[in-house]
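Supplementary Text 2. Reproducibility record for the structural model of the 299-residue chain.

All settings were left at their defaults, and a single model was retained for analysis rather than an ensemble. We include the record here because the model underlies the residue-level annotations in Supplementary Table 4.
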Amino acid sequence: MTTALHSILRFIGRQHWIPFGRERILRLFCHPDRQRSYPFETDFFGLRYPGDLSNFIDWTVYFYGASSHDELFIIRDLAAALRKEGRPVVVYDIGANIGHHTLFAAGCADRVVSFEPFETVRRKLDEKIAVNALANVTVYPIALGAENGSFPFYPPVGSNEGTGSLLPAAGVEPIRVPVRRGDEIVREDALPLPTILKIDVEGAEADAFAGLRDTLQAARPFVLMELLGATRERLAGEAALRNLLYPDAEFFTLAPRRGRRDYVLTPFDFDRTFEVFIAPKGAVAGIPALSGRLERGRK
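Retained model, structure tokens:
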């Protein structure tokens, strides 16, 4: 692919006012699953982002500017609100992968604590930290779970390196990774309690939450998570998910606002919500940047 075509496709990808069709055009000329290695470095909200078009998350950053704008922008708004209240901005990134969310959070947080057990993607996370000389990020080369030990991990297949999981995957040969209870690490290393927690562990969220129970109860952080099919099946209902968090947690659906680089918060539906936003009761109503994005009465 020529540099000129890259430039045209990047221009199209970043026209966020176009609600439909951009993805089809990009995939027609530069399909993420058929890309050869093409290293690049781009600006990422004032930080340097080294990537490669053969990786789906990097592909998304290259053409769209970021992956999951809605998640990033709510982290930004939460950080601003916490600072205004005089509270620390401490982000836990559980399942940090190649460091997309960690890098963004480092630009607006006092401290970022990231957990990533898979060395292949963790090297890319470490590269982002190094090229930006980030001093506020700590990376743990482990997974979080309900028990300590060495457990099978099923590496990702294909261009999307964010799909590795502790859950079995058909046809994938597992490796072993260290798993720790998060509460023990927080106590042993005297880590600051999280005020924002993002978790993406491909269906193993319940185990990670179980091992962080004391921390979640004490910190009552804002939580961002995906509710995948595997997660729903293992939880078997909304009550089980709520029981893993703190008692006064409010649940919302987080969604991108169509045609804009923005987000909305809508009513939570366990069976249909994909991106979940969790907050202490009343917190969203007290933050204008969030309460102004509430859309009520829509499932």
